TrEMBL record:
Cofactor(s) named in the record: Mn(2+)
Residue stretches in coiled coil: none
Catalytic reactions on record: agmatine + H2O = urea + putrescine
The record's free-text note on cofactor binding: Binds 2 manganese ions per subunit.
Protein name, entry field: Agmatinase
UniProt binding sites for Mn(2+) 1: H125, D148, H150, D152, D230
Superkingdom of origin: Bacteria
EC number(s) given by UniProt: 3.5.3.11
Top EC class for this record: hydrolase
UniProt keyword Metal-binding present: yes
Entry keyword annotation includes Hydrolase: yes
PROSITE patterns, alphabetized: ARGINASE_1, ARGINASE_2
Length: 303
């Protein structure tokens, strides 16, 4: 038997420690273009817990995507154009919310300040707030593209609450609501004074993906964009493994078409959150999260 590297490409299922089998490193060398980062946190969850296992679930599910070099329908091999590494998970004191926020802002800020694109895996949706803070320090005023069943603009939550991030983010001037949009919403919010544009799930399901993409692009314009995808934007038929499932959501097909349609938008960072593998024994939800993240990475180099 000939010698082979410890972590080779012979078997898809051996040594599956990182997202898409990418190199595990925290060295941000010049040849690296994009970084994936895990945030195993669910202390801000108000429904079912378990999203602390989301980053590992997404990484494990990504093994099913590794065999296809040029992912359909893209006409190029992603990793020929984009050098991606896995930074691993943010390490914070268990149960210490403030420490999590501090360390996320530090690690994400370090990655973004080095000029890298960033895709993060939650964790519950609260992690987007410290990620936005880190991105704002580097990119300034940003637009937000937000896929979710909930607007997460609720003012009556606690300091650490996965339903309040987009109440606080505009107040901290992290995002410009006049250029931000939420897609897939199907729970109550302040309809008369809501600062974000909304394409609710019922409307989205009656539209073509191209029509939704047109509205998103018109809204965000040329601003730097932060893209956040709460997996419960998908109908529970496509993503049962999440803490607050709401029926009537988007299909995985529609969501993928919309994400692909965002080619050309100035996306500087993105996340996939609220994957809770413990509620989905078949890994359907983790696979959806892993696939959405892969499409987001394609956006960084799409023409």
């Amino acid at each position: 038997m000939s010698d082979s590297p410890i972590f080779g490409d012979i078997s898809l299922y051996a040594n599956n420690f990182s997202y898409m089998g990418r190199r595990l490193t925290r060295e941000l060398t010049d040849d690296i273009d994009a970084v994936v980062l895990g945030i195993p946190y669910d202390m801000a969850t108000t429904g079912r817990p378990g999203t602390r296992f989301g980053p590992n679930g997404v990484r494990q599910a990504s093994v099913s995507l590794r065999w296809e070099e040029a992912r359909w329908p893209w006409r190029f091999v992603l990793f020929d154009r984009l050098q991606v590494v896995d930074y691993g998970d943010v390490d914070f004191q268990p149960g210490n919310d403030a420490d999590m926020v501090k360390r996320v802002q530090h690690d994400a800020g370090r990655i973004l300040a080095a000029g890298k694109k960033l895709v993060s895996f939650g964790g519950d949706h609260f992690v987007t707030l410290p990620l936005l803070r880190a991105a704002h320090k580097v990119h300034g005023k940003m637009a937000l593209i937000h896929f979710d069943a909930h607007t997460d603009t609720y003012a009556d939550g606690s300091e650490y609450d996965h339903g309040t991030m987009f109440y606080h983010a505009p107040k901290e001037r992290l995002i410009d609501t006049e250029h931000s949009i939420q897609v897939g919403i199907r729970t109550e919010y302040g309809y008369d004074d809501h600062p974000f544009a909304v394409i609710d799930a019922a409307t989205a399901n009656d539209l073509q993906a191209e029509q939704i993409v047109q509205q998103i692009k018109a809204r965000v314009g040329d601003l730097p964009v932060y893209l956040t995808f709460d997996i419960d934007c998908l109908d529970p038929a496509y993503a049962p493994g999440t803490g607050t499932p709401v029926i009537g959501g988007l299909t995985s097909d529609l969501a993928l078409k919309i994400i692909r349609g965002l080619a050309g938008v100035n996306i500087v960072a993105a996340d996939v959150v609220e994957v809770a593998p413990c509620y989905d024994q078949s890994d359907i939800t983790a696979l959806a999260g892993a696939t959405l993240a892969l499409e987001m990475l394609h956006l960084f180099v799409s023409e």
